[in-house]
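Sample log: DUF2252 domain-containing protein.
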Amino acid sequence: MSDEFNASIENLFDPALSKATRFAKGTEIRKTTPRSAHQQWNIPEKRRDPIEILIETNIGRIETLLPIRYQRMMESPFAFFRGAAAIMAEDLAHTPNSGIHLQLCGDCHLMNFGGFATPERKLVFDINDFDETYPGPWEWDLKRLSTSFAIAGKWRNFSDKHCKEFAWHTADSYKRHMLDYSHLSALQIWYADIDLSELIEMGEDEEIKKFHLKRIKKASEYTAHEKEFAKMTYQQGPRARIKDEPPLIYHPTIREEEEVLKAAEKAHILYIESLSDDKKILLSRYKLHDIAIKVVGVGSVGTMCGITLLMSATGEPIFLQFKEARKSVLEANLKNKSKYTHQGERIVIGQKLMQSASDMFLGWTSDDQNRFFYIRQLRDAKVKPVLEIMKSDNMIDYAKSCGWALARAHARSGDPSVVSGYIGKGNEFADAIAKFSMAYAAQNEIDYTKMLEAIKEGRLPIAPDV
């Protein structure tokens, strides 16, 4: 795509233009990149070996944890997909591009959505993982999300027809809600959120509704930090300590512990500086008591992640989660370079751009080894999707919910009028995304098999008893 065309895309965001004019500009882009082109998945002539990409992403990770990473990815093609964002990022760079850029999640799959409590204690449905967030073509997020439904559907043994429907409904919901947001003001979009209880009530499956409403009630009834404190700590003299559960939760060695705690205290001070003054005052009433490494997720395994326990003088706990912030997998596949030198800041700002409400303790920091981190509460009334109990209708409802949440997130930093103009009101775009999703799901299966072969050959580390 020419530089002149990219420059014209930037001009589409001129607020002086009417919504109708911007919608028409979006429609014009179809002449350069037809909507039907998005159905294409053609293997690039010089596609890199996906195993080489995985090995490259191991650089800088904790080597002793890498076997856990690949053990988790071995579980299914869907688990592999969750840990292989870098592979798909390179592949997406070879697909047709609308040229319309906005803030992306970067690792937009169906398990990175769910319910959580806002600082006002309202439960909302939204995206909840932003490690790879970066500005880029809006359709990259939608293609990864829709593909995740096709792959998860295959993992759950749904038919190909159902899997394609899941992907289609994801894209169709995105289209319909983006059109709705195109009629709102920028401020109205910024205020918009998705109430989790109302979303669940919209479903028609009474059994699944009761299940989720019970989970919401349970999530709302307790103070997360106090429950986690009772479950995750023990008393060692005057000091509360996080329980070890190796290899998933563990402390540094006794020899390293004092040094690690000192480094953590320095990093904690830098973290506090990244917060607003009111949060600084709040956290000044708590002192860092303990720190432990915690293995999380699939794609994050091997990065430096963990939990810190803060205690007030009167014994009230707060658990914070820190996650190492590395370069987004999207950056190497886009011409635009990040404006943030601190990767933790990149993640925090991207999250605040996309989420309807972000964690009140969301901030960033660094350590003495020049590693970047971002920090948030460990858990706060989180409600995660339970795919194992979903029937096909439930999967369709969930696909619609995720498509809606993604449209809302994109509408905050992008121009919904331009995006809606490009998508149009018919089914052509959703049809194309559904076809792409099924084609890429097949590619993911091939790459998954290559990973299994690489593990057998010893190219990727795995626990000896697997």
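Observation: Residues 106 and 449 are 24 Å apart (CA to CA).
Observation: The mean pLDDT is 91.
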